[in-house]
Amino acid sequence: MKLTRRQILTTGAALALLPRRAFAAMPELVAAESRQQIAPGGYPETAIWSYGGGTPGTEIRVPQGGRVSRRLVNRLPQPTAVHWHGIRIDNTMDGVPGLTQEAVPQGGSFDYDFELPDAGTYWYHSHNRSMEQVARGLYGPLIVDEPKAPDIDRDIVLMLDDWRLDPETAALDGNFDNGHDLSHAGRFGNLLTVNGRFDPAFEVKNGERLRLRLVNAANARVLEVGLDGLEGWIVALDGMPLESPLVVSGAFPLAPAQRADLFVDVTAESGAAASLLSIERDGGYGLCRFDVTGQAAQARRTAPEALPPNPLPEIGDLAAAPLHEMRLQGGAMRWLDSAMLGDTEMGGRELAQLGKFWALNGRADRPEAPFLDAARGSLHRIAFVNETNFDHGMHLHGHHFRLIGANGTPGPWRDTVLVPPGETRQIALVADNPGKWLLHCHMLGHAMSGMTSWFRVA
Ligand code: C2O
Ligand code: CU
Known about the structure:
Cupredoxin; binds copper (II) ion; oxidoreductase; Cu_oxidase_Cu_BS; signal; Cu-oxidase_C; binds CU-O-CU linkage; 458 residues
């Protein structure tokens, strides 16, 4: 481990050089084993890993332009690191072991201290063995408040997760890297939770306007989210405000790591319950309930205005921007014939024996050379071409990008794009944040079994 200035500077003379801020104790974010009632009442508690004693971890909430300062203290039985998902962050604080920092060993700590340029709904999660560590509960909400609070009655963070628990004991299934999950859709669970609980309830009033901040923290499951007894709009995706709020009609997809901010009005009557639903082939399942008691003080509001835009870069002339193709390859039924692993070309069978089932442009795992070497400030288009039989949620670190619509015009800002099997999604990226940035599938089992690359901005 590198010595920090604090450890080096021990003499009185040296102390005078110490920046003031170093004296203020940094609040700790302790990652440790704990227990929580994840399954419905009547089942035993589940042994989990968490930040600050429960999952989701401690809510971190800061005003836009403010800073997050947290000392990660690792009391887990494995090395770890924290990634601040969706934050256009200083590269050294991005939390990617082997790329931006060393993993924090057992008993070790790491000081994260960074600025928040954008308002919105973000989250933090482990980025070491994330396939296992996120599944065990190592994630939490990171909320950045707009300078002027929007006109709503309640602000509710809803972190959605999908747990694979033993149906008798409610113990977490510990078989994290089995080849079947890795080579198919990923680790699907058998219990959907909101904020680490089964079917929690919130008290609301008829006519109230709620801001629901949805975060899909699941390893692999793409949720189709629906509303019952609530009517409203999507106002932001992946933290970034939409230019105009989008009416929710029917279900909308939320891939792992994606967020959606909704403004919804409670239309269910007093005495009834509204709910957030997961729409599946055989119907809708309640994710959480809103128990309606009484009437809001004010009459129902008119449609909301857009949230104020974040200071995102201008997207220039798209037609002039270089187009880079990233082909998503492998997985069950489209098995890799061969791919590069490091500088070795390997056959599909050999790769499978090493637990590698996927490749990006013929490379499994993060290669030595970046997928893209971008000059700071340059505009690029990336086409994700899904040649596999599965969904992939491609995520870029350190940047948001604009999804390019079928008609070629720039759509919403996102940090994670869902690419369905056999389809292509094109994005536009202004590479304005210097450093080494991961680009990977956020189905965490896919990321670990080959679907990880990176790009460099200098
Ligand atoms: Cu949510 Cu590589 O991260
Ligand atoms: Cu994937």
